[in-house]
């Protein structure tokens, strides 16, 4: 026998927790039907604006566990009794807009607020969009080359110049020429003027030109070999996917010919215009970078130390090139160039560049650590991030005695980088510390080199004398002593060995 819905009265429960979920659901359905009949209209449960929609919320079904036949207390405590429900219907209030005490707030985050929150979280983790570094010179030249006509000569020139990594080659060239200018030629000659003669302006300028051209071509060769061996891995990184070999602007055969030709010409210019020791150092650098560092990037993290050696060789090349101009026969072997007392300054510069590589490269690699990982390169930035920051801090501290040994102001230039290296180690690259250390290292090296050139001994002596009108005492003393020695050599002597006046000697003759 079926009962009319109007005759069904929901049970009045003083405590909703004493009812099971099935009874609660039936009570809700019965109350809704009773209200619909009394108003003279039949509709679905969710059609009336005054219909309670508590049991349509997903929280009820999520909280209900069919296996255990229990309902969470948070839901039971929020269920209204039938008496309270009837009162709310009589007042015409909507159950949807009425907050339920004890129920969790269901606030939906707006899209623009969600984007803002994610951007702030990415910024705090330092792995968001701001990590994207600008395109390097090779990528820019490749883009320029691809935009030109296929048969254009500029297209080929731009592509081959991109193969040489011009920005990196210029940095290597600057470290070489700075060491060439820092060599104390005048101080060495003052110790013993008979050992060597001061190079003339023409010879020193010619040597400088040979050194500049040979170093740039050798660096271009090393970079070309680097791109020749890993185009498939360059395609996996955003910073390198625009290189000429990856984009097909140059064939692998053309890149190999370019690398070999620049290597032979560059080393040949250094051999002819400087000395064999500089040429040997350049050849060693091409071999280390192209044939040792490049494949080792996919084997072990020790590749960072090999790359630091590659960066330390160019300043030694400039120092040895300057030392070769004052060398004489029997004093120009590689041992004399590299292991003598005069080579100490070159070793200090090489040590400075070796230590500088770690805070510079470790901070840079941290910004693109996920790209290195995707490409399969074994870098400390993702293999061992804690060690990556620790090594950067360690070598930043080591640079203090090295800088002080060469120039006391170099320690002041290193203070800023040490501060950023400490932040990089403390925050493990987060909070912008990696980017801060990278830019500190970019500015630290030129400050050190330019400061060393500005404070080189004897550079400002002539300027001071011209400004204040002081005579050149050293030059006058040397000239007087030279004149005295010349007069003594030209004065004839008697039988007893005494000096005879020049007029008397002429009369006797």
Textual characterization of the structure:
It holds the Pfam family UbiA. The structure is a single chain. The longest helix is centred in the middle third of the chain and has 29 residues, at 201-229. Helix 10 runs antiparallel to helix 13 (252-273) and helix 10 (201-229) runs parallel beside helix 14. The radius of gyration is 41 Å and the shape is globular. It has 509 residues and is mostly helical. The termini are far apart. It folds into three domains: 5-91, no CATH class; 134-339, Orthogonal Bundle (Tetracycline Repressor, domain 2), CATH 1.10.357.140; 353-455. The chain has 25 helices and no strands.
Chart the SSEs and their pairings:
Elements: H1 21-39, H2 58-63, H3 73-78, H4 82-91, H5 111-125, H6 137-147, H7 153-163, H8 166-182, H9 185-191, H10 201-229, H11 231-234, H12 244-247, H13 252-273, H14 276-296, H15 303-325, H16 334-339, H17 344-367, H18 369-375, H19 380-383, H20 385-406, H21 409-427, H22 433-454, H23 461-468, H24 473-490, H25 502-508
Helix pairs in contact: 6-7, 8-10, 8-15, 8-22, 10-13, 10-14, 10-15, 13-14, 14-15, 15-17, 17-20, 17-22, 20-21, 21-22
* Beta-strand segment tally: 0
- Give the H and E element order: HHHHHHHHHHHHHHHHHHHHHHHHH
In the CATH scheme, the class of the largest domain would be Mainly Alpha
The 3D shape can be described as globular
The proportion of strand residues reads under 5%
Portion of residues in helices? 55-70%
- Give the number of domains: 3
| Distance between the first and last residues' Cα | 167 Å
Low-confidence region ranges: 41-98, 126-130, 187-202, 474-483, 485-509
Most strands sheet: none
CATH fold node name of the largest domain:
Tetracycline Repressor, domain 2
Give the quaternary arrangement of the chains.
single chain
The radius of gyration over CA amounts to: 41 Å
Membrane topology: Multi-pass membrane protein
Keywords: Heme biosynthesis, Membrane, Mitochondrion, Transferase, Transit peptide, Transmembrane, Transmembrane helix
Pfam families: UbiA (PF01040)
Main location: mitochondrion
